[in-house]
Write a structure and sequence with these properties.
By secondary structure, this protein is of the alpha/beta class. It has helices spanning 7-10, 16-19, 66-80, 112-126, 141-152, 184-188, 194-197, 235-248, 269-287; strands spanning 23-24, 28-29, 37-42, 55-59, 83-88, 106-107, 110-111, 134-139, 157-163, 202-207, 254-258. Strands 1, 2, 3, 4, 5, 8, 9, 10 and 11 form a nine-stranded mixed sheet that branches. Strands 6-7 form a two-stranded antiparallel ribbon. The chain is globular and about 50 Å long. 39% of the residues are buried.
């Protein structure tokens, strides 16, 4: 059967596993590590025996709003025949009060970048989607995660969208991880792959009114480090500084400021969809389709 069809469209009930694995899916525990999970939007263009669909991964922030990202991107995914995947990294793993550890890629024995790659592989096993390279967006805490993920795994990205991160890792080998890259290779087993990142389309996106500082200038908290405010006090200022840093290192950036919007994840997504659409169109044109 080509694609997913709701039972009402077929004139009869579907097996529950089929019903909840298509369209806006249920939430699945990861087989790699059941502390983590994911949901997806599987468009009607999905065909188990057809061409693999492109993949967009939306990484939540501190609020863990994965299903909201999925629902916001459902119409876009349907229109462009793109599978939308939303991983979930629950709060409180290891430390019951933790909200932030995933943002820095590593905590205890957990490598969150590897967890995401395992979830992507599971999506490829469950649905017919191309997991070799994927689109990736994250906002706020998700924006922190995705730009650090890109330093390790640019080879897996067809496009990177960094939304309003409050804490930035600059491309500075003299400043310690995580405000800079000193010690990166010792921590992660490889140097940052900046030359490869130059080949990945990069967007940075933030609201014009994203100027609150109470959450990101919290000196002494577990997610604070001296120097976190060295390039500005607001997310808008810090993202502009990161964009300039990327450009100095030969990494072109599309910088989108959404007028009248504060720190609101769901209100900056239209430029992200436009950015992702432009990449999919370029990929289709390059493939001759």
């Amino acid at each position: 059967m080509a694609g997913y069809v709701r039972p009402s469209e077929r004139g009869g009930p579907a097996h529950p596993s089929q019903y909840y694995s298509g369209g806006a899916t249920t939430i699945f525990a990861s087989r790699f590590d059941q502390r983590f999970s994911f949901c997806a939007y599987v468009p009607s263009a999905h065909d188990p025996d057809g061409a693999p669909l492109p993949l967009a991964v939306l990484q939540h922030g501190t609020g863990r709003r994965g299903p909201q990202y999925r629902d916001n991107f459902a119409e876009w995914g349907e229109r462009h025949g793109c599978l939308v995947l939303c991983p979930l990294f629950p709060a409180g793993i290891g430390d019951p009060d933790d909200l932030h550890n995933f943002k820095f890629l590593e905590y205890g024995d957990i490598r969150y970048d590897q967890v995401l790659l395992e979830i992507v592989a599971e999506a490829g096993a469950r649905w017919n989607t191309d997991t070799s390279r994927f689109l990736l967006h994250g906002f706020s805490g998700g924006g922190q995660f995705v730009h650090r993920f890109a330093y390790l795994h640019p080879d897996r990205l067809s496009g990177l969208s960094i939304g309003a991160p409050g804490r930035i890792t600059h491309l500075d080998a003299e400043r310690p991880w995580w405000v800079g890259l000193k010690g990166f290779e010792e921590k992660f087993g490889r140097p940052p792959r900046l030359a490869e990142l130059r080949d990945v389309p990069v967007q940075m996106v933030v609201g014009s009114e994203d100027t609150e500082t109470w959450e990101i200038n919290n000196v002494g908290d577990s997610n604070w480090m001296d120097g976190a405010d060295a390039h500005g006090r607001t997310r808008l200022e810090r993202l502009k500084a990161l964009s300039a840093d990327f450009e100095r290192h030969g990494i072109p950036v599309r910088f989108d400021v959404v007028p009248g919007v504060g720190h609101e994840a769901m209100y900056v997504l239209e430029p992200v969809k436009d950015f992702f659409t432009s990449i999919l169109e370029d990929l289709e044109e390059g493939s001759g389709r």
